[in-house]
Amino acid sequence: MTASAQSKTNLGKLTMEHVMISTGDYAETISWYVNKLDFDIHHEWTVPDLPGIKLAYLKRGDFLIEVVETPDVFQVRKTPRDLSEALADRGIGHLAFLTPDVDGVASILTERGVEMVVPPTSFPDAGRRLIFIQDNNGNFIEFLTPLLELEGEHDK
Questions:
Q1: 69, 84, 95, 96: most buried by Cβ count inside 10 Å?
Q2: What are the C-alpha distances in Å from 10 to residues 5, 7, 14, 19, 107?
Q3: CA 14 – CA 11 distance, rounded (Å)
Q4: 47-89: pLDDT as tens digits
């Protein structure tokens, strides 16, 4: 199916809505995203058929992160030792947020006590300038600015 044919189907109308993070520390995870990344608590709830599980939607713009507290570990999942291991592993490896000023984001996050896993770095082959951090659960988060946007800013 061609790209133009796909855009005429319901699949052509898909948008990203949320990602789910499972955690053993619900309160700390919510606090981290609210205080470090300026997410708002959009909605919290429980499911009567799932005792001990708390859920929340954290919202930033049109994007939601669903935080789910699971009281019992139901799988053995290791957190990658470093970004290289995370990129080499299969599955979803990180979240990525687009920003017009990745250096400004890095500065704010550093002020808030967030350690840079990858400090502001340009990758010309990828056309991006980016940083990587980790949340309180060890999940990798990327912030990026397309290099063309940065070059346009310097031309003004």
A1: 69
A2: 11, 8, 7, 21, 40
A3: 5
A4: 999 888 999 999 999 999 999 998 776 556 666 777 777 666 6
Q: For residue 53, what are the CA distances in angstroms to 50, 63, 66, 79, 153?
A: 6, 22, 13, 22, 47
Q: Give the separation between CA 143 and CA 106, rounded to whole angstroms.
A: 9
Tally of CB atoms within 10 A around 37: 20
Residues 143, 107: contact at Cβ < 8 Å?
no
Cβ atoms of 140 and 156 closer than 8 Å: no
